[in-house]
Amino acid sequence: MHTVVLAVLAVSVLSLPGCSDSDNDKGYSQAKPDELLRTAALMVRNGEPGKITTLIYADSREMRAVLNRLGKLLDSMQKLATTVAAKFPEEVAKIRASVEAAAGDEANQQAMRDLASRGVAAPPTGGPAASPEDRRRQQEAFEENFQFIFADPFGWLDKNAARLTAESIDDETSAVLLDGKPLPVPVTMKLDKGKWYLVLPLNIPGVDRYLPETINEWRIVASLMRTLENAMIDLEKDVASGKVTRMEGLAERAGELVYPTAGMVVIMYVKEMDVRTRRERAMRDFRPRLKSYLEARHSGADPEDFKTMSDLLTRSAQEGLDKLVRLRVADREANPVPKFAELSDDQFATLVEGWLAANDAPLSLASTPTRSDLQAAVKKFGSSQLVPVARSK
Length: 393
Known about the structure:
five-stranded antiparallel beta sheet; single chain; 2 domains
């Protein structure tokens, strides 16, 4: 389950890229909700599943960077699946039949609906606290799931695209339907700057608690994507060379390559939640001070600019306090958390300006920033710290 949670999370470097002119030549369109669904299926048929991530809405550059990394992973999975199908045609046919039967099973669909309504529990770490039996069961489940993924990672979308339709909720939102009914885990689409995007169901109870908030947390999710991508590349080589000769062996090899490293990444992320808890305590003191500061010094700002400024300063505090909390763990006395309520407006502004500058977004708060200054700061925030998106070699 821990890998599922982080995969949902990982499913933002410059902007939402959408479809390029060359993609439009292939019939890719995001002009309407139904065209968005058709484009996703067409990308699979054209052997370009990695481009599906460009159809997913990202609300930050960090999320976009992780989606770009996920796109590389999907392309690697497609290449592996093609090689596997050529090498093990009979085994793949059996697994695909099993997947299709499971997809229509009401019990499985109800399990997905239960997941959406109840949420997920905290992800197991598989670390030292887990028993050897627990770790063995986790790895066996991991290997079994990977056999299904290897056999036909995108086949369902290709075969069932005609069953997917869009139902308008309002002018800027639509729901994805399967045979005229909502999906077991509801998926929506939203209109943004003239293009429609899929919205990941990240509001599932339990999953929402683990969504990345800081650049460091997004980096960890990106490292999981990179780990999985590199494993897919190595597995494809093993199958093509004849080193792996059966599907079961492929799943075992995947476990050897992925499970230990991915498990460590998940453990790292779970530990980040402890840092987040400490950071959030400080943020609870920061937020009312920010509110009083903005109302006292920048209340004349345009409402849209006021919100942009509030969001930007909140984000800068998350990053600044994240670093401070880590230092405080090492030396509690040397790195005290500021007593925000006791800071004057000028002291508060100086503190926040320092956090902004440390994240590549210098901004003066001596007077109310212009909209262009705010937009420039938002665009540059954390630019030198974003996760890399170059394809692994």
